[in-house]
Design brief:
mainly beta, seven-stranded mixed beta sheet, four-stranded antiparallel beta sheet, 11 strands
């Protein structure tokens, strides 16, 4: 079965950087999507950035455009989220999620993902 293992969270000061990693196992199909989501207390799980395994197209939330980058290392079956210029409002538990492609309206929505890893906490202090 599909398993996702996320890591890389931590505590940084505003303006700092972190790189999150998600190791993927169990996928035999090529037409899947994978991405990063975050959830702060009292808020919905938000799609931060997602990428298609089949064609590489990406999505970024407006709040992270020009600061975060998603990329893959297929040889390692790993996706990364490089987070630069971190802000206190980026503080959240970050989750790696994946699902089969279909329905671009939910390409990077939590309800469009079928598999989840455990969260990794990112804390950005001012």
């Amino acid at each position: 079965d599909v398993q996702l293992q996320a890591s890389g969270g931590g505590s940084v000061q505003a303006g700092g950087s972190l790189r999150l990693s998600c190791v993927v196992s169990g996928f035999t199909r090529d037409d899947y999507k994978i991405g990063w989501f975050r959830q702060a207390p009292g808020k919905e799980r938000e799609g931060v950035s997602c990428i298609s395994n089949s064609d590489g197209h990406t999505f970024y939330a407006n709040s992270v455009k020009d600061r975060f980058s998603i990329y893959t290392d297929n040889a390692k079956n790993t996706i990364y989220l490089q987070m630069n210029s971190l802000k206190p409002e980026d503080t959240a538990v970050y989750y790696c999620g994946a699902g089969l492609e279909g329905g671009e309206s939910w390409f990077c929505h939590y309800y469009g993902m079928d598999y989840w890893g455990k969260g990794t906490l990112v804390t950005v202090s001012s």
